[in-house]
């Protein structure tokens, strides 16, 4: 199974995706890590474009074909990237599940963005202005939505695990 996380920076995607990967032993792929590695290579210093997504899609497909479940952690803001992930699942012959993480409490979301700590060396986190100006296209198909507002990490992961059990 390919589980693709989507959502604006600071909503709790990475925390939930990492915890879910631990609980399910799925391969965890984070676009931020791939993009920062590309930046650090000095090949594409500033605008890495879709290179991080492309690299992670290829790694996801390789792992899916080996029989591993994969969790992709990304903003996934546009229809093109969402469609690309689902095409990877189809090509690998596995189910693709889309999960959108949101934080409906704007003050809580802003606080998270402004108080985040960098966990990838060299990565520059977006400020609140950039988060709110981020292109994020409306969804065109059903997906699982987890609202992290006022919830603990454990609660959000448990909620998602319940959804996954109904998908089996």
From TrEMBL:
<keyword id="KW-0418">Kinase</keyword>
<dbReference type="GO" id="GO:0016301">
    <property type="term" value="F:kinase activity"/>
</dbReference>
<protein>
    <submittedName>
        <fullName>Kinase</fullName>
    </submittedName>
</protein>
<dbReference type="Pfam" id="PF13671">
    <property type="entry name" value="AAA_33"/>
</dbReference>
<dbReference type="InterPro" id="IPR027417">
    <property type="entry name" value="P-loop_NTPase"/>
</dbReference>
<keyword id="KW-0808">Transferase</keyword>
């Amino acid at each position: 199974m390919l589980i693709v996380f989507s959502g604006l920076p600071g909503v709790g995607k990475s925390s939930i995706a990492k915890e879910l990967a631990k609980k399910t032993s799925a391969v965890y792929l984070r676009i931020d890590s791939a993009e920062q590695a590309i930046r650090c290579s000095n090949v594409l210093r500033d605008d890495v474009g879709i290179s991080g997504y492309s690299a992670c899609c290829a790694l996801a497909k390789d792992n899916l074909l080996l029989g591993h479940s994969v969790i992709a952690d990304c903003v996934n803001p546009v229809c093109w990237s969402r469609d690309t992930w689902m095409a990877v699942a189809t090509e690998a012959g596995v189910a693709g599940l889309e999960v959108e993480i949101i934080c409906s409490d704007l003050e809580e979301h802003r606080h998270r963005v402004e108080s985040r700590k960098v966990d990838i060396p060299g990565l520059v986190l977006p400020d609140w202005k950039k988060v709110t100006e981020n292109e994020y296209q409306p969804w065109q198909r059903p997906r699982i939505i987890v609202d992290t507002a006022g919830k603990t990490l454990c609660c959000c992961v448990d909620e998602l695990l319940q959804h996954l059990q109904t998908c089996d």
